[in-house]
Structure formats: C-alpha cells, structure tokens
From TrEMBL:
Organism field: Pseudidiomarina terrestris
Binding annotation for Mg(2+): 20, 207
Any single GO CC term annotated in Swiss-Prot or TrEMBL for this entry: cytosol
One Pfam family per UniProt: Prenyltransf
Any one of the GO BP annotations: peptidoglycan biosynthetic process
Name listed for the protein in its UniProt record: Ditrans,polycis-undecaprenyl-diphosphate synthase ((2E,6E)-farnesyl-diphosphate specific)
Self-association and partners: Homodimer.
Record-listed E.C. numbers: 2.5.1.31
Binding site for substrate: 21-25, 33, 37, 65-67, 69, 71, 188, 194-196
Residue runs in coiled coils: none
Free-text function comment from the UniProt entry: Catalyzes the sequential condensation of isopentenyl diphosphate (IPP) with (2E,6E)-farnesyl diphosphate (E,E-FPP) to yield (2Z,6Z,10Z,14Z,18Z,22Z,26Z,30Z,34E,38E)-undecaprenyl diphosphate (di-trans,octa-cis-UPP). UPP is the precursor of glycosyl carrier lipid in the biosynthesis of bacterial cell wall polysaccharide components such as peptidoglycan and lipopolysaccharide.
NCBIfam families from the UniProt entry: PRK14830.1, uppS
Gene this chain is encoded by: uppS
C-alpha cells in the first residue's frame, strides 16, 4: 500500500467521512468512551494533513449528528468542550496551511460562545484555497433537506418563485456544501454499514467505502487504501459500462491524448 502513486491514480475531489468507533476504541482499552473522542481528534488532524498533501479539494467530516444529543449528557458535554478546544487550538494551524474551514449543521444548537468561535474561524480562513475542510456538527441529512425546502418555500411565499418552477438544482443550491463538488467518496470507519443521516442528498452518486478500523486508528495507510479502492471503481451514473468506456475514449480523442 505504500507504493501507491498518487500522481497517477484518479483522486476523489471530495471525500466525506463518518468517523465512527471512538467509544469502542476506548472501551477496548478499558477506558471511558470520552477517551476515545480525544484520540479521535488526533486522527482528524492526521486525515486533514493527508487530504491536503494529496491534493483533495474538499474533506467533510461527520463529527456530531443531530441524533447524538440523545447520548448521556456527560458524553455530550465532553464532545462540546472538545469541539471548542480543538477549534481554538487548531484554527491558526489550519490557516497557516491555507485550509478553509466551514462548519455545516444547525449552529443554533450550540452555545453563543461556540457559535462565535465558529464564525471567527470561518471568517479567518474564508479565502484559503489548499483544502476546504467541512466539519459536520449538529448535522443531519434530513435537517439539511428541510432547511433547503424552507428557503424555497419562503421564496414562493414572497412571490419570487412559483412552486411549479422548482427544480432539483434549485433545491441542491440551498443545501449545505452546494458550492463544492459533490462528495465522490464516502468512507465510514467502525465497521457499520449505514449512512446514519449524513449527507442524504449529496451522497446520491458517491462511492461508499466501509472500513472495520475504529476511527482513532484510521491512519495514512487506511486513508490511502480507501482512495486506491475508489480509483479502481467504474462510476456509471446510470449509464451502461459500454457507454462509460466509450465516453472515456471520446474524451481521450478530443483532448488529443
Ligand atoms: C463516533 O464514535 C463519534 C461520534 C458519534 C461523536 P462513536 O462515539 O459513535 O463510537 P462508537 O460507535 O460508539 O464506538
Ligand atoms: C454517526 O455515528 C455520527 C458520527 C460519526 C458523528 P453514530 O455512532 O452516531 O451512528 P449510529 O448511531 O451507529 O448509526
Ligand atoms: Mg458510533
């Protein structure tokens, strides 16, 4: 796996990751689940560096779902504190490395202090171009589609849009991540094979990759393995394999290769 030539293989433009398995990682070591969340923060740093160095445009990490509020209050409170301290600690470094940070999710669910910190971090890094790092926090795919629908409904109510004129593209434009390429690779660590209300609309044509590794153990090699797997897949978008192959040949001819 060390000999993957990243210059040669087809890289995903946008990788989305469901970072699962922190709690089990800690429990396997006889520790409290929150110990796993802290170790998970180190794995985040590693994944961000890897994505930036390999030239991936966008990385979207699922950090806290709209359903995770139902966890024991003590765990929720540790996760919020961790989010706050990691933001504080890492933003300058992200900025130095030209990373644009965006938080997607219902920010109103957070404390005023955390919302302020999020706004400051987004503003500071807004013009950066090396990598866009989206952290999904208090995020749910159903919430996202609902908030997009509300925006279109408001435009209809204001007389700026007729309901018959609504298109898929208009709804897509109101969703989180609209200005970025659609995620083309979804990775879920922790061995579960489900989407857990992550980017329901945006993942329509993503390639799914499931890894048994628990998130705190997700390292450069594990990331490289997922990308190598992605690069071998044929993405058909509803076409037949023959059509896809023909389209590749046609592109080669027109690009003079
Ligand atoms: C993912 O790890 C992190 C969050 C959901 C916040 P988990 O905490 O879900 O870990 P497991 O799945 O229980 O091992
Ligand atoms: C998904 O993990 C959410 C995050 C990784 C933030 P969960 O552990 O919450 O998902 P379920 O409950 O196993 O579906
Ligand atoms: Mg989990």
């Amino acid at each position: 796996m060390d000999n993957i030539d990243f210059e040669q293989i087809r890289l995903p433009k946008h990788v989305a990751i469901i970072m699962d398995g922190n709690g089990r990682w800690a429990q396997l070591r006889g520790k409290h689940r929150t110990f796993g969340h802290k170790a998970g923060a180190d794995a985040v740093r590693r994944a961000v560096t890897f994505a930036r160095q390999k030239g991936i445009e966008s990385l979207t990490l699922f950090a806290f779902s709209s359903e995770n509020w139902k966890r024991p209050p003590q765990e929720v409170s540790v996760l919020m504190d961790l989010f706050f301290t990691v933001l504080k600690r890492e933003v300058k470094k992200l900025h130095k490395h030209n990373v644009r940070l965006r938080i997607i999710g219902d920010k109103q669910g957070f404390s005023e202090k955390l919302q302020q910190r999020i706004n400051d971090a987004e503003q500071l890094t807004a013009a950066n171009t090396a990598l866009t790092l989206n952290i999904a926090a208090n995020y749910g795919g159903r919430w996202d589609i609902t908030q997009a629908a509300k925006q279109l409904a408001a435009a209809v109510q204001a007389g700026k849009l007729s309901s018959e004129a609504i298109t898929e593209e208009m709804l897509a434009n109101e969703l989180c991540l609209a200005e970025q390429p659609a995620p083309d690779l979804l990775i879920r660590t922790g061995g579960e094979h489900r989407v857990s209300n992550f980017l329901l609309w945006q993942l329509a044509y993503a390639e799914f990759y499931f890894a048994d590794v628990l998130w705190p153990d997700f390292d450069e090699q594990a990331f490289a393995r997922a990308i190598a797997d992605f690069s071998c897949r044929e993405r058909r978008f509803g076409l037949t394999s023959e059509q896809v192959q023909q389209a590749i040949l046609d592109t080669d001819v027109t690009s003079g290769e």
